[in-house]
Amino acid sequence: MTNRSKLKQLILDVFLLSEEEYSLNLKREDIQTWDSLGVVSMAVGIQETFGYHLRPEQATAIASVSDIIQVLTENGVHFDV
Q1: Domain ranges of the chain
Q2: pTM of this prediction?
Q3: Could you name the CATH architecture of 3-74?
Q4: Is residue 7 helix, strand or coil?
Q5: Residue 12 CA from chain centroid, whole number
Q6: Model confidence at 81, in pLDDT bands (50, 70, 90)?
Q7: What is the enclosing helix (H) or strand (E) of 11?
Q8: Separation CA 17–CA 58 (nearest Å)
Q9: How many CB atoms lie within 10 A of CB 62?
């Protein structure tokens, strides 16, 4: 499974989305369940899935799926194009 696929599954699971609702352009304001508990769940999922521990300020600053990819890429997690 690619890192892109792992991230997609993580987002679907954490935010209780269907496959049709997911896209790389998905933003925080588009997801009703992306609240403070969602941020914590996402951060824990990222730690468990990718081994990267988001700092609190990083986790709260993330506003889209592409932001997650950017933070992970900057910290050594590779995503195929």
Answers
A1: 3-74
A2: 0.91
A3: Orthogonal Bundle (1.10)
A4: helix
A5: 9
A6: low
A7: helix 3-15
A8: 23
A9: 19
